[in-house]
Amino acid sequence: MEEKTDWSRRAFLGMSALGALGLAACGSGPAAPPQVDVQVPKALLDQAAALRGGSVGMLSQKLYSEAANRALDKSLQVFAQATGTTIRNDLVSGDAGDMVAKMDADVKAGNSRDLAFVSDRRFVGQLHNLGDLTDVTDVVEEMRTLYGAPATEANNYCVFDGRWYAIPYHFIASGMYLRKDWYAEKGLPLKPYYTWEELRDNALEVSDPSKRRFGWGLTVNRSGDANGFIQNVINTYGGAIADNTGTKVVFNSPETVEAVAFIGDIYKNPKYAPMLPPGVGSWTDSSNNENWLAQILGLTLNQFSVYADSKTKKNPVYADTHPFNGATGPALDRPLAFGESNSFVVFKGAKNPDLAKLVAKFMAGGSALLGVAKEAPCLVNPSWDKVWDSDPYYTSGDPAFPALREQTRVPLPVTTKTGYAFPQAPSPGEQAAVAAYLLTDMMQSVIQGTRPADAVATTHSRIVQIFEQQGYRQ
């Protein structure tokens, strides 16, 4: 998922009162996207009438599909032209490590964009804790009447003291993928989930370096995917970064040490060397996508970007892919699979908050979302229940859709045997610690020879420092 660390600028100037425009390809490059007749609903046109001539600045957390980014731009262009407004949209990398710091600095300096959409699980808590966000409860309640309930996870990550500070935009499911043809050759079963130990052992069994088959397509190098992998193993083993309040660091536990030892053994033990693809120790967030599409991996963990790419690019691996919900560990007999939403936030000091909120309402439903969703199948999904029923694409466009919709409605929280309930209360400290790549740094030290218990203890101390910087005394 190639991304840029700098903002990249697109501006859409409202030129007419057109209510609909076709979605077409942008310039040269990949094949033209599916034609979606993007329309601005009359109710939104009426609300926008008083805002004609206005403008907003927007940040978009870059999607892991270039075609989806182009489709998103086209939807914004439709809105701008239909309402006679201007929307300046900048792309931003969610994995650069400094995104929140940049946004906060802009807000404090009084020159921030009006709105942005970002991962609610990863970033909303930090931005709220910094005092950068506007209460958008009124918008969310209005959208409930239009679109039904949002994804259950959003009630955890977007709500603080009973008020909404982010507007769910589109749902991003969590998932893992394995080569079902390789499993079939070895007589291994296809299941809705596995234990982490099963996945490790199966990966070794299906591997054959002489055929460029590497069963384990997961890295612990600095990347968002590695963060997700490491944290998931720790949680399913019974560990956690913070307690359920999100304020107390509890990282240094026997369960965390056991999980870290398990992960480290995969990358250190010569027994598992045949299942590790070349260069896995230096992978970035695009590497597992690229290697999966190159058909040399037997297992990977990713958002549905890799699934979307294989489908839209007609890669043969699509037909051989078994998507499943994830893995279990000693402390949990079901996967931690509840996903996240990219959600809109309106920054304090926004110059045109009314227009910003209107853009968010437009983008979250109807044909505006459909155009983006078709370019990133199963990666960009409705966050709102009734939007799932708004077009046959969401019910019959891919065999994975029913399971994805159920993930938006999964009862939460999920509680481990050690008492941690996930998703936990939004924790700015945890979000900042993960964004600083403390987990991946910890695993690198283990691979280089540090005892797991020592690595965990050191990382615990580093996490404590970050929590205290966020105002949580330990």
From TrEMBL:
Top-rank taxon: Bacteria
Family matches, as Gene3D superfamilies: Periplasmic binding protein-like II (3.40.190.10)
The UniProt record lists the keyword Ubl conjugation: no
Keywords recorded for this protein, A-Z: Sugar transport, Transport
One Pfam family of this chain: SBP_bac_1
Coiled coil stretches, renumbered: none
Protein name listed in UniProt: Multiple sugar transport system substrate-binding protein
Species this protein is from: Amycolatopsis sacchari
Lineage: Bacteria, Bacillati, Actinomycetota, Actinomycetes, Pseudonocardiales
